[in-house]
Amino acid sequence: MLSILVADEHDVVRHGLRLHLQAQPNWKLIAEAADGKQAILNAINTNPDVVVLAYELPMVNGIEATRQIRARLPTCEIVIYTAFNIESVLGHPRGRG
Fold first, then answer.
1. Nearest 5°: phi and psi at 91?
2. What CATH number did the domain enclosing 7 receive?
3. Which alpha helices (DSSP H) does the chain contain, by range?
4. What is the rounded CA–CA span in Å between residue 3 and residue 21?
5. CA distances to 22, 25, 97 from 80, in Å
6. At residue 94, does pLDDT exceed 60?
7. Is position 40 within any domain?
8. Is-contact 6 52, C-beta < 8 A?
9. Of 1, 30, 86, 93, which residue is 20 to 30 A from 23 by alpha carbon distance?
10. Backbone angles phi, psi at 63, to 5 degrees
């Protein structure tokens, strides 16, 4: 069974992810968080196989949350997603730099 933690500040997004993830065989959503600080604490407390986090999170952003989670749980896989245009996030067009 693959254990998963989801972190997003929006209830509706977490709800949608929860429905999708719970529909997958052998996947179990074990924790949720509405901000980066809670995502870190929940990850440490539940030791999930995978953490799915938003790039933009209140209190601690997704990048810093990833750093802190990986420091404590080095085998945990992490997926970061964003609704932003990738060029605005990276600061350059795709494929360049």
1. 85, 10
2. 3.40.50.2300
3. 11-22, 36-46, 62-72, 86-90
4. 10
5. 19, 22, 20
6. no
7. yes
8. yes
9. 86
10. -70, -50
Place of tokens 């795709």: 94
Q: Which residue carries 């539940």 as its tokens?
A: 46
Give me the number of domains the chain comprises. Answer: 1
CB burial readout 21-44, b (16+ within 10 A) else e:
beeeeeeebbbbbbbbbbbbebbe
Residue appearing with tokens 């953490």:
51
Query: According to the model, what pLDDT value does residue 97 have?
Result: 47
Token duo for residue 88: 């605005």
Q: Which amino acid is at 40?
A: I
Task: Express each pLDDT in 29-51 by its tens digit.
Answer: 999 999 999 999 999 999 999 99
60 lies in some domain? yes
List, for residues 52-76, the tens digit of each pLDDT value.
Answer: 999 999 999 999 999 999 999 999 9
